[in-house]
TrEMBL record:
This is G-protein coupled receptors family 1 profile domain-containing protein. It is a multi-pass membrane protein. Belongs to the G-protein coupled receptor 1 family. One of its GO terms (molecular function) is G protein-coupled receptor activity. Residues 110-363 form the G-protein coupled receptors family 1 profile domain. Keywords: Cell membrane, G-protein coupled receptor, Membrane, Receptor, Transducer, Transmembrane, Transmembrane helix. It is found in: Cell membrane. It comes from Meleagris gallopavo. The chain crosses the membrane at residues 92-118, 130-151, 171-190, 211-235, 255-283, 304-327. InterPro entries: GPCR_Rhodpsn, GPCR_Rhodpsn_7TM. Gene3D superfamilies: Rhodopsin 7-helix transmembrane proteins. GO terms for cellular component: plasma membrane.
């Protein structure tokens, strides 16, 4: 290529270079102009050393970039894209803050109403089932209190999350009532199973001491499992970036402990108990389907089966609420290249917290005794909104069958 074919010279050094190579016109420069007008000029390696490095000829620049107007417009386009992404992230943050505020306004009052109604029932008809329901409502109330703290943290723009210790405490206090809820469901199901499986000896079993010991052990275990990262520093993440999340502040081994040491075994035991109770109830029902005077043990078993059906709804609600969070957390812990931290921290964790709002609604809809007392508390009967309902518990003669909780 002749020298005249090279019409562009880099960085203003073209004149000096042309003067220096005028003594060797047969040695051209190789000009390269790639696409997008990013000019880059590469000189031929066949030029003599005197022409390139001599004293009379200054050394030319080997590469010189000159961005075109089209290239310079790309940062502007990227800036608008990043602005749109920031706006979308801001909208998600606002939505999560609104949901946290809504849950903080609904969960505590709903569970407080259930607590008051169950306390009134316990005064009239003491029973282990009602005590466990009271414990479940208390655990859900604690979840509602944590929703209030999260809503305050959203208002303060995550100022509390900058402290690793506060984030660990927040995660621990959030997981402790969640563990308490699933363990309480396990106790309720076990209590109903014993009532159906051993109807004659169930009323002779001691109630106060076993219930108190079981609840004490439950909360000690829930506190220990919920605060494992605080108790054992080896379960904490070494590099905390100020983003408060379960996997951001705790190692994946802690999540594995919760999933495969608490929730999965508890759900498996609950499923086995419900299948066993359903098989017993079905066998008793098919044994005397047209009997006019059913034996009292069968009535008691069917009554406990109805109570256990409410627990089944609570169990399904728990699985639908916390299941996605636990599955997503397990995937995040096992897959290093996956990035589900935002989804786990916001959407799935909020979905899990809604379980504490579902439980009082389920008991209000499916438990006649609790629904009746809630209607009295809200004054719905005086307004004619709720008709009086018969108790789901059949009272029997003294000394034959104790009144059991109709959950």
């Amino acid at each position: 290529m002749p020298e005249a074919a090279c019409s562009w010279w880099p960085c203003g050094a073209g004149a000096a270079y042309k003067n220096s190579v005028s003594v060797a016109p047969a040695l051209p420069a190789l000009c390269h102009t790639p696409d997008h007008a990013d000019h880059r000029c590469l000189y031929s390696s066949h030029l003599p050393a005197s022409a390139l490095f001599g004293e009379a000829a200054p050394r030319p620049v080997s590469q010189c970039w000159e961005p075109s107007p089209q290239r310079s417009s790309l940062p502007t386009m990227g800036g608008s894209g990043s602005s749109a992404g920031a706006a979308a992230g801001s909208m998600v943050s606002v939505l999560c803050a609104v949901l946290h505020a809504l849950l903080s306004c609904l969960i505590p009052p709903a569970n407080l109403l259930v607590i008051v109604a169950v306390c009134q029932l316990l005064r009239k008809h003491p029973g282990s089932g009602y005590i466990y329901v009271l414990n479940l409502a208390t655990a859900d109330l604690l979840v509602g209190v944590m929703c209030i703290t999260e809503a305050l943290d959203d208002v303060l723009d995550g100022d509390f999350d900058r402290s690793k210790s506060f984030c660990l405490l927040r995660i621990s206090l959030s997981m402790t009532p969640c563990i308490g809820s699933i363990l309480t469901l396990l106790l309720i199901s076990l209590d109903r199973y014993l009532a159906v499986r051993l109807p004659l000896s169930y009323r002779t079993l001691p109630k106060k001491a076993p219930v108190a010991l079981s609840l004490m052990f439950l909360w000690m275990l829930a506190f220990l499992l919920g605060h494992l990262p605080l108790i054992f520093p080896s379960l904490q993440q070494s590099n905390y970036t100020g983003y408060c999340g379960l996997l951001s502040v705790a190692r994946s081994e802690y999540l594995y402990t919760l999933c495969f040491g608490v929730f999965a075994p508890s759900l498996l035991v609950l499923l086995c108990l419900h299948v066993s109770v359903c098989s017993i109830a079905y066998a008793q029902h098919t044994r005397s389907p047209h009997s006019c005077a059913q034996p009292r043990p069968l009535r008691a078993r069917l009554r406990h089966f109805k109570a256990l059906r409410t627990v089944l709804f609570v169990l399904v609600g728990f699985g639908l609420s916390w299941g996605p969070y636990l599955v997503g957390g397990t995937v995040q812990a096992a897959c290093r290249s996956c990035d589900l931290s935002d989804t786990l921290k916001d959407a799935l964790f909020i979905l899990g917290e809604t379980n504490s709002l579902l439980n009082p609604l389920i008991y209000a809809l499916h438990s006649r005794d609790i629904r009746s007392h809630l209607a009295k508390l809200l004054g719905c009967r005086r307004r004619g909104l709720v008709q009086p309902v018969a108790s789901s518990i059949h009272t029997v003669s003294a000394g034959s069958w104790p009144r059991s909780s109709g959950l």
